[in-house]
Amino acid sequence: MTLDVASEVEALYFGAAAARGPRALTLLASRPGGPAVRVPHDDLLARARGAAAGLAASGRIRAGEPFLLVASTGIEEVTTFLGGLLLGALPAPFAPPAGLVGLDGWVRRVERTAAALGATAVVGRAGTLEFLATHGVDLPTVDLGALPADGPPRPDVTAGPAYVQLTSGSTADPRGVLVGHAHVAANVHMIGWGSDVRADDRVASWLPLYHDMGLVGTVLFSLYWGLDLALLPPQAFLARPASWLEAISRHRCTLSPAPAFAFPYAAHRVKDEEVQGLDLSSWRIAYCGAEPIHPRGVERFTRRFAPQGLSPGVVFPCYGLAEATLAVTFAPPGRGVVEVAVSRRRLAAGEVAPPEDEVDRLDLVKNGRPLPELEVEVRDDDGRPAPPGRTGAVFVRGASVTTGYLRDEAATRAAFGADGWLDTGDLGAFVDGELVVVGRRKDLIIVRGRNHAAIDLEWAALTVEGVRPGAAAAFAVPDAEEGTEAAVVALEVAADESDWSRGAIAAQVQDVVLARTGLRLREVLLLPPGTLPKTTSGKVQRARARALHLEGALHP
Amino acid sequence: MIGPPMIGPDDRHPPSISGRVRGLLADVAGVDADGVVPEARFDDLGVDSVTAAALLGRLEEAFDVTITPEDALHLTTVGAVVRYVSRHARCDR
Fold first, then answer.
1. Structural domains in chain B (count)
2. pTM over 0.90
3. What is the pLDDT of residues B66-80, one digit of tens each?
4. Which string of DSSP letters, residue by residue, matches A103-152?
5. Residues A453 and A381 in one domain
6. Domain count for chain A
7. Which residues of A touch B76 (CB under 8 A)?
8. Residue A126 to residue B45, Cβ atoms within 8 A
């Protein structure tokens, strides 16, 4: 089957396959031994055209208007997303319900998000749509399982606005970044450039399709460059992290991204018998972004799998955000994680300097240099460029910086400057020409004029035995008496800890945080498992935890 | 304390399945499921969404069943999972 592209949009995502012969998208089974489904790119294009025809015929999906796409990891979800693009409609990939938990909250999020974006319909699988209907959701729906497998091309659709990327913000309000095809093209092109992409590169991913790293970094990237992609459902990785490494080994993958937590998660949970027969020597780049990198966690991973041929420099720190489509800075391929040991005390005063002693030491990571069509600035409190080695607000400008949030002018004005500069909301510094990210500015805890990054307190607290992995939130509360802020750390501990061991855990958290940061916590909250609010990707929502605490709703 | 009676293995189902589901719950989510009634909702047991996804994957593996996301929408209690696994694991064999 020859592949003829018929529109600007088709040329963008299927042009490489048309020129070089199609590669394929392979959906791996969620459990060992299950069947994999391989769809060559020409077939993918046919199905995407079919989806476009079916969406248009439903009368509920229209060019230029957003729709919610319940984006479980599946071939039909990918072709429906692409079908939306071919039609000129704006798919907004939406996290599917996790199953077992949080279903009421999920139903309400569907309603709130659809209303906020002005979505014309919810597109998903029949069972999911039925579930929404029985829970009183009164929105037009389209069953993506019933869309045709082929359809006519739409040569007149131009490469304008493409889709809506929902951000997993730290507040409850849904917000969608409107991303254009030109932004995607610029960003995936730069990702390829920064990765020294080769014709025989193969991509593997378990990242969800509603996540920007999963959508842009793997699906659209592999289509644009005409590369094979092996896609694994996220729950397969979470249940059995070896499935990720097996996919890379079996399909000889070279590029595979993951958020920072995935590396220690896999290092801990892959069983010895699962390591037998793994060959990870093909793996060139493990893009690692989306959350601060803990160098020790990455080290555990690379050391554990070195005997399987894993290159020590495979983990590739990068920095990016949905508002700039995805990637902003990249480290050089193959270098691995390079730490910058800094003084906590000097960092609190806005300066990157060597630590005075071990207790004062904080390990940050070099996130590389801006990609070629992007500029990055670190600005001081007066909005002037900060000198190297001083922390400040991170701003980005360039080809893949989007124009703002769909139907949210206030948020757009707050972050997107008229001069093209985007305020990322992050705090960072340039060190040796590379960006070092310290944390989110709004997550800073400012006590008596000194800045403490929330994650620094959390990492300290998480070293205490009895604290559930990843379940810590540090935030500031106003201290009226002192006229400053005080720090609170909320933690989850096992429900069956005795009062005695709870007291011991709280005291140890106090001690370790004090020793590391010089900060005395106002309060250590010990909560039952599952109490801390988290995003759909499992990150603790600090602002939400803070709000709940101030309302008195966060308690054992 | 007055409350629902603590029930061990659900007697409507083979104890082995109920016991194994509870074992996985303890292993993956750190929830001591021995004293949990079949009507207990995962939401009330302190299971978060990442743990829930891991638990679903482990259930699929342990019982050799495929739990579609649509099916998972109806599995909100420990008892519902035990019933689902009992029904589908048997069909698969």
1. 1
2. no
3. 888 888 899 999 999
4. HHHHHHHHHHHHHHHT-S-EEE-HHHHHHHHHTT----EEEGGGS-S---
5. no
6. 3
7. 100-101, 103
8. no
